[in-house]
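[Solved] Which block belongs to which protein?

Original post:
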Amino acid sequence: MTSRDCILAALNRETPDHIPTFEWFIDTGVGEALTGHRDPIDIVDALDVDGINIRPDYGREQVEPDTFADEWGAVRKETGDCIPAIIKNPVPDIQRHGDYAFPDVEAPHRFASLARAQERFGDTRAVILNLRDGFSDMRDILGYENALMEMAAAPDRFRELLDRAVDYNLALAGRARREFGIEIVATTDDIATAHGLLMRPETYFDVIGPAFQRVMRGYKDLGLKIVKHCDGNCSAVIDFWIDAGIDCLDPIDPEAGFDMADFKARYGDKICLKGNIDCKGALQYGTPEEVEAEVKTCITKAGAGGGLILSSSNTIHRGVKPENYRAMLETLRRSKVQE
C-alpha cells in the first residue's frame, strides 16, 4: 500500500500496511533542522510523511516588514510560527456583511500549492485540502470577540454570513475536486477551550449546527473524506459531528483530559482517530525516549483494528524539538500494525 492508500484505509477504519501520519503544519525551522529544506513539500518528502495538508493560496500586500494585508481584507502580523496573527478584521459591522466580497474561488493562483503537491506526489502520498466548516471564517472576518458577541446579539445576520462562508468553502472544494481529484478535506475550526465550548451548546446547535451539517453534506456529496479538527473539550458536539458525516476527529486533545483508549472504545467503530502525541508536552519539553514511550502508548490504546492516524496533538510548531519529532516518526515506523 502507498502512503495515500494507508491514510484512506485508516479513514475507512480499515487496517493499513502501516499506521499513517500527517501534520496540519510542520514548522519550517523544525523541518529545516531535520532535512535541510524549508519548502513544506520538500520537508514532507524528505521525512517520508504519509500526507501533506495544503491550504488555498491567497495573495498578500506588504504593509510593514512583518505585517501584510491579504485577499480576505485582513491585516496579519508574522509571529514566527506557522500562522500569522490577525490584527485587523475586514468586517467590523456584521450588519453590513453584504458589502463584503470573499476572495475569488476561480483565481488562477488559488490552488498553486495544491498543484505542486499533486505533481510531486501523485498517488504516492495523500494530498489533503485544508478548508473550513464555518466558524473559523467567521472569527477571521469579524474578529474573535465580535464573532462570539454577534452570535448572540444578531443571530440572523450571523447565520447569513455563516451561510456565505459555507458556500465559499464548498465552492473551493468543488473546484479542487474537479481539477485536482482531491479525495480528502480537513477542516480546522476550533470552537472549544480545554474546559468546554466557546459558546453554550444550545447556541451552537441553533446558530452554527445547521451550517455545519450543510457543509459536511456538501463535502460528502463531492465524494470527499472529512478530517475534523478541534482543539479542546468538544465532548458536547462530538456525536453531532459524527452524525453530520465526519470520518475522523483530531486531535483527541490531551490538554482537555481526553484519553485515546476511551475514545477508541466509544467512537472507534464510527470514526478514525487522529493524534495525539502531546505537542505542548513530550514533543516540546521531553526527551526522544519519552516521545517513543508516548507513541507506543498511543498505538497500544488506539491502533488495534485500524482507524488510527498518528500525529502530534496539534502541529509540529516552532517549539517542538527536531530530535523529538524524528523520534516520533522513527518509533512509528518500527511499530507493527495491530490486527
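(Second protein starts here: sequence line, then its C-alpha cells.)
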Amino acid sequence: MRRDEEFEDLRPLLFSIAYRILGSVSEAEDAVQESWLRYEACPTQPASAKAFLSATVSRIAIDVLRSARVRREEYVGPWFPEPLLDDPYEDPERSAELADSVSMAALLLLERLSPLERAVFVLREVFGFGFGEVASAVGRSEAACRQLVVRARRHMDEGRPRFEADRAEREELAGRFLDAFREGDVDRLTALLAADVQMIGDGGGKAPQWADRFIGAENVARVFSSLVPLFARTGAKAERHEVNGQPGAVFRDRDGKVISIWTLDILDEQIQTIRTVNNPDKLRHLGPVADAWATLREANQGHRPTN
C-alpha cells in the first residue's frame, strides 16, 4: 500500500486523537495535515504507519495545545471546544469510551489536565494504546506514563459527567425540548429542566450574549421567554443534531447560515446543562455563518411598535 493510501486509512483516527487533545476542529485538521507532511518526508518507511502517525500527531497536538493555553486564558467569557457534529473514527470495541470522551463535558474536564497528561490519557484510556506505544508517542518512560494516566484518571473521575444510560430516552427528551422551542411553548420547555439547570454560552465577545451563565430553572425559563419569540421573528430554524456525541441542535437563520450550536446534558429525564456556542470563529467549519448581530438588530427592528 502506498503512503498516501495508508495515511488516508488512518486519517479518521489521527483527527480523533488530535481533536480530543486540542478541542478544536481547525487545529486538529492542521495537526493531521502536518503529520502527513512529516510522514511523506520521512526517508525510510516506518515499521508501523499507525504507530508513527499517531505519535507524530500527538506530539504536534501537545505543542499546539501549549501555545493555545495562553490564548484561552485571555478568552472573553466561558471557553468551549469547537463543536463536532460527526466523529470520523469508529471502533465498536471502544464505542463507549469514544462517545464519552468527545462530549463537551468531558472535553472541558480534559482542559484541567496538562498537555502531556491530556495526550497520555487520550491515547491510553480512549484509544487503548499500549503503554509502550504511549511512551514512544510522548517521549516519556512507560513508568512515567503510568503515573500520568493515574493522575489524569483521578482528575477526570472527580468530575466525570454521568449521562442517562439509555440513549433513546435522551434523544426522545431532546426531541420534545426542540419541538417545544419551535412551537414557542415556554411552559413545556421549563418542565423539562432540572431545578438546578445551567445555561452557559460561549460567544468569545464576537456574538450576542445575554450573560455567561444562568443557573436555576426559573432563570433559564426567563431566557427562553426572550429567545423563543426572537428566533420566531428572525425566521431561524432549530435542527435536531447530535453534537459531540450528545443530544443537541444546530440553529440557522432563514438563509440556512449557522447562528448557534446547542448541546444538552440529560440525566434522570431532565436537562441538566445547556451549552451554547455562538462564537462565529468556532462555527465556520460547519458552513456559512450568520451575522448574529445583524440578525438580532433585524429581530429588534421588526418588534418595534408602529405609531
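Accepted answer:
You had them paired correctly. Confirming on the second one: The longest helix spans residues 49-73.
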